[in-house]
Structures are given as structure tokens and as C-alpha cells.
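user: At home tonight, take the chain set out below, taking as long as you need, and be ready to discuss the fold:
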Amino acid sequence: MKKVAAYILVMIFAVLVLPLIIVKGCNFSKEALIPDEDTGEELVVRVFLAEENEIVDMDIEEYTKGVVAAEMPAEFELEALKAQAVAARTFTYARMNGMFLPADNPHKDADVCTDHTHCQAYITKEQAMLEWGSKGQEYWDKIEAAVNSTHNIIITYNNQIVNPVFHSNSGGRTENVEEVWVCDPFPYLKSVESYGEENGENFYNYLVISDEEFKNTLVERYPGIIIGNNDILTYIKTLEFSQGGRVKYIRIGNITMKGTEFRDLFSLKSTNFQIERKDNNSIRITTIGYGHGVGMSQWGADYMAEEGSTFEEILKHYYIGTLLNVISK
């Protein structure tokens, strides 16, 4: 009888208890990410307010709300806004820990700043609601829901905080980080397909510029450039494309430059561009996508959310091999 009883207990454990242990250990659950007990203590981030030229202390969750409101359209799907909230929080927390700081850091006494070209954009609740007009309260409630429902969640890779860069629209495929910036490759910042962006803003952009202005701009930046009197297009050749389909290197006359240099020179939306003749005296530069193309595409995230993806699925699509974890205070 003892053997029978022992056998029954073993079977009960194997059939009922063991699967629960395995599932909890292998699968992600939103509940598991939220701490069982809230100490009531929040992390404080030091923010340099660029316009006011002062540093203020903010609760990281409140700061994240202002970032999400400034960085992503509030009319986007809730799951996309959640993904943005987690990315923004991770960006902030990494810098609070001294990670991914540029050598020319202009705000050494602060963790982050409100200059979106350097850190993340930020807007106050009052400013946001004023801009949103009649939808102000509705949109702010939505932002709060996105941040509160992802409370303290950040993105990690191999137990390290990631650098969760993001952009507006990848033009259909994101970029390898090392093909945009001078840095070592990050395994989680690799080129991936990004669907549904063609319906978003800034998918196609056009710049029409006269041949004379085009040449003058080049000569001003590269005084030694040699361009003949034939059609300007005969002196332009794309040498290499990135994995994401962007121009990596381009040669104009006797000068070879990076696609990123050409983009900066003519203030293009992205390095995914084509140059063609507009008329006898001018050319047209067509760009696809908006931004550097690395990490999460915001318009791609919104499309995934519309198609039923959760914020976790969105983040894991754009940041390959990552996990979601809770900030340990």
C-alpha cells in the first residue's frame, strides 16, 4: 500500500505540479514581471531641461510618461505605446547606470536631457494636453495606462540592460547598428523586416534641388571634389548598400563618402535614398523611411499592435534575443 500511495503522489506531482513549474520558468507572463510587493519607493532620474537650462529630479515613471507623449503619436495602439514606454524606461535606466553615454556628453551632472537629438524628447502633461486639444484628457489617460501597466519593466540581453534605440519609420527593414554608427555590433540591434510602414507618415519624402545648388553644397563641404560639366548623375555612383537596403557608401566625382554623411549634408530623412533627374536643371532625391533605422520602428510597432501583437512581441521582434525584466531597486 505504501508503494501504491507513493506512486500516486509521484504521478500527481508529475501531472499537475511539474508542468506549472516548467511553464512559469520558460514562458513570459506579465504578472511575473510585476513585483509582489511595492515598497512605494520610486527611482529618481536627474533630467537636464534643455530649454530652461536647468537640472530637475523626476520620478522615472512620471518622466517616462512625458517621453512617451513626446516621442510617439498618442493615437497609436495601446500595445505600441506600451512598447515605447518600456524602451524609453530602459533608455533612461541605462543612462542612470552610466551606460551608452557619448564621449561629448553635454550634461555630465544629469542622467538624461530633453534634447531628442541627444537623448529623448520630453513634454509636460500640461504642454501635451494643450497640443492635443479636445482629446487631451483621453490621450493622457492612454499614455498613463501604457506606462502604469508596464511599471518598472525594462529590456535586457544576457542579463545586461540594452541600448533600446528607436526611430520613426524604417522604410520596411531596420538597420544593423554598426552600419549606422561607429561601434561594435550589438547582437540585439540587427536588421529585421518591419511591416506595415508604407501607410505611415514620412514613408516617402522628396527633395528637389537644382544642379547648381547640389554642386555648390558638395564643394562647400569637400573643396577638393572634382565634378565635370556633363550630367551630374554621371558622376554619382552608389558603391555599397547596407543589409537594411540603405546607401552605405556613395561616390560623387572623386570623393567617396558614407551614406550617413550624404544624408546629413542634404538633411535627408534617411539613408535609404535614390537620386534621379527631375528636369534639365534639377534632380530629385527620394528617401524611404524616417530616421536612422536602428532598433524599434514606431510605425512598425503600431502596425504590429493593430495586427494583435503584444508589447512584448513587438519589443522582441525589434530587439532580437532580448528578455523583459523588472528594475531591481
Observations:
- The chain is about 35% helix and 20% strand.
- The CA atoms of residues 169 and 299 lie 6 Å apart.
- Confidence is low (pLDDT under 50) at residues 1-39.
- Residues 2-26 form the longest helix (25 residues).
